[in-house]
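Annotated sample (chain length 186).
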Amino acid sequence: MDKRDIRKQMVELRCNQKKELIENLSKIIQSKLYELPHYKNAQNIMFYIDAKNEVKTDEAILKSISLGKNVYVPKIVSKGEMVAVRIMSLNELQKGHFGILEPISDEAIEPKDLDIVIVPGVAFDRRGYRIGYGGGYYDRFLKKLSSKTVKIAFAFEFQILDTLPQEEHDILMDIIISEKQIYFIK
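Output written by the structure step:
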C-alpha cells in the first residue's frame, strides 16, 4: 500500500472508534508521557491540539501548565508553514485552519528552543517513521528543531505498523507512546 491508501484506511479506522475508548486510551498514553525523564526535565513543550479522534492532548496540556512548563501549540501562519505559540490556558484557542483550534496569540518560540514536540500522525512504524495528513506542516517544522529536541509521537496501538513507505524528507520520531507500550527508537 502507498501512503495515500494507508492514510485513508487509518483515518477511517480511527474515526470509527468509540469516543469513550479514545478518551480512556488517551489517558493511558498521556500518563506514560509523565513517567519519561525527558518530560520531567523539559521546560518548553509543544503539543498538538487533537481533532478527528486523535490521541487527546488536553489533559497533558493542562497538567504541563500546572507544573510550570511552557506549553506551545501549532498555529498555521501560511500555506505549509506553522509556528509554535505559547498558551497559558485552553481558553486562549479559537477555531483556525482545517477547523482545528489554534492560539489567538502570536507569541512563537524558535523551534530549536523546544525541549519536546508531541507529534500527531495517521500511522507510524516501529522504526520511527510517520505518515501525517499529507500537508507537510510537521515535516517542515520538525526540520527546524535542535538535534536535542525529543520528538514524541502519541499513537493508538492500531496505528503502529511494522513498516511504512518512507521518503528522503521523512523525519523519524525518537519515541512513540501507545496505550500498550513506549517505543524508544534511538
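Annotation: The longest helix spans residues 19-35.
Annotation: The longest strand covers residues 70-78.
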